[in-house]
């Protein structure tokens, strides 16, 4: 199968959507499919052979963060050329409602289109206001996927229609088989994310840290991610700042080793999360997880059975839970065991097969509709029976 995948966000700035698309493309390539990914990227960025650059992205505030998007006449021309050259059997567009390549591809593409919705934003006035503009593009989509129930709910409430829920995928064995780094072991708490993006929750963890260190002065906080390190610790008393170690941006291999090494992984995110891929990666590596009680996080953690939850934005609750867990090796071992078993449902062997099944359904349906139209049936009745009728 010839598969075209559209990434809305800049390929050279790491993020959950980009990682999902990368891993999905490589999973299909291993199965023998032909895959091309269209993504924003700077011209001098080294790209995998399956990625085609649509040109440089620009930073735009989006869903509580700053996304690097690509839009405009030049981008539209590159989208059309990529579609023409690719002759794809199916086109998979991620975030088709974002003002980037996904929307451009949706307008320009013909044939079966699958769209994945990653965003969970129940109060998006922008999405409601833009519905009239988006409607023509959305009507061309043959099948919709949401990465979580909360992303599905955002889609239903703002744009109508529905979607099948297929979560983000992870190569579980890649994390499970990583070798721990002895320098990152020994009473360590781990955090990974953009340091200067408040919704990732590092300020909440910093508020909790003095109470954690008062109970366990030997504990270290390891922080992986880009941002202003001095600003991140300025709220801490000077004598505690040495207990925080910044690792900067780390490779995928070091991320797996990081998650295999820490005694407890903390995800203090405050909102704007539709899934929580870092939680899945942490569980894959065998790290016990403590996370804020966002709805999406609770779902990923099996409502607290596969990882513990604390009240969102409550530094005292975070500190209390972290100390309790670090002082209870038996509970940590239990969380490792439960998390390692629960996470198998997110492995690419399951997630990739589900997505491929969607591709096969829409391509078979499109072929059957075309055959019915050639036979003079108009295709409308068959289209309805296959679930391809427009809303």
UniProtKB/TrEMBL annotation:
Residues 14-173 form the Glycosyltransferase subfamily 4-like N-terminal domain. Keywords: Glycosyltransferase, Transferase. The keyword Glycosyltransferase applies. Its EC number is 2.4.-.-. Pfam families: Glyco_trans_1_4 (PF13692), Glyco_transf_4 (PF13439). GO terms for molecular function: glycosyltransferase activity. This is Glycosyltransferase family 4 protein.
